[in-house]
From TrEMBL:
A single MF term (Gene Ontology): DNA binding
Pfam families: WAC_Acf1_DNA_bd
Protein name: WAC domain-containing protein
Localization per Swiss-Prot or TrEMBL: Nucleus
Keyword annotations of the record: Nucleus
A cellular component annotation (GO) from this entry: nuclear chromosome
GO biological process: chromatin remodeling; positive regulation of DNA replication; regulation of DNA-templated transcription; regulation of heterochromatin formation
Originating species: Plectus sambesii
Length: 162
């Protein structure tokens, strides 16, 4: 629900004792019912004021309807976010929390993730001039120089005869 002064919107309870013959004012945006036109009008003005914020993104200065749309779009984006990236991303954000600005944090995480593969990630590669699809099942860390020669390239002192 959209936020007003950091508090979620609360719908009014329908008036008690409504009869089928009573005149009412219905607000479709919030599914609220009003007996009094002044209350209906006041609520309509309030919903159209740019004082609302999106509970998901934190965007502010929105009308109620804009905040509602923003929440729907943000939730749709979250639903389409790849599940295999959730844990690695949360881990990286946790490790980079010393960054003062959000832009710096985003850049650090992007820089780290753009050149790596993650378990569960789907890939397209070319083999024998044909595109093929694959899924990453395992990731191995090779070493600092990324070619496997880090530990074996330099003999230790134990390997030299005295």
């Amino acid at each position: 629900m959209p936020l007003l002064k950091k508090s979620p919107f609360v719908r009014r309870v329908p008036p008690q004792g409504l009869k089928p013959t009573d005149d009412i004012f219905f607000l479709p945006l919030t599914n609220e019912v009003f007996k009094n036109y002044d209350d209906f009008f006041e609520r309509t003005i309030h919903l159209n004021s740019m004082v609302w914020s999106c509970a998901v993104t934190g965007r502010s200065g929105l009308t109620f309807e804009e905040a509602l749309d923003s929440e729907k779009q943000a939730n749709a984006s979250l639903e389409s976010f790849p599940e295999f990236l959730e844990m690695p991303l949360l881990y990286l954000v946790h490790k980079f929390t010393y960054r003062g600005r959000l832009d710096d944090l985003v850049n650090d995480v992007f820089t780290f993730m753009k050149e790596r593969y993650f378990v569960g990630e789907e890939l397209t590669f070319v083999e024998s001039r044909k595109k093929k699809r694959a899924r990453v099942l395992n990731v191995m860390y090779i070493g600092p120089d990324q070619n496997g020669a880090a530990d074996d390239a330099h003999p230790s002192e134990d390997d030299h005869p005295s």
